[in-house]
Write a structure and sequence with these properties.
Length: about 100
């Protein structure tokens, strides 16, 4: 089974962790348009207000963490352009290189 999740903030990474707990053999991939994943949006006012000194404190996890702990591949700076439920495919664009690729199943 292959699971594709679009968005790697709180809901996306939580969904990936739960999917892994439910199925140890699934291939799990997350596509995220931004550079950051799993950041604390609720902490932003504290950062802007100066109570949190570094924005890094709001991003405690990175793609390497999810790969090592949950065996989840996270592709940051990738925009999902199309989803085909009939073909069971996702078309994504690497926003750094401009390369467009299609992932099946």
């Amino acid at each position: 089974m292959r699971i594709v999740i679009i968005g790697a903030v709180a809901a996306g990474t939580s969904a990936a962790a739960k999917a892994r707990r439910n199925n140890e053999d699934a291939g799990i991939v997350i596509y995220e348009k931004d550079n950051y994943i799993s950041y604390s949006g609720c902490g932003m006012p504290y950062y802007i207000g100066g109570e949190v000194e570094s924005a890094d404190e709001l991003t405690p996890r990175d793609p390497a963490f999810f790969k090592s702990k949950y065996n989840v591949d996270i592709f940051t700076r990738h925009e999902v352009l199309a989803i085909s439920s009939d073909e069971k495919s996702v078309t994504a664009k690497n926003l750094i290189t401009g390369c467009v690729h299609r992932s099946l199943r």
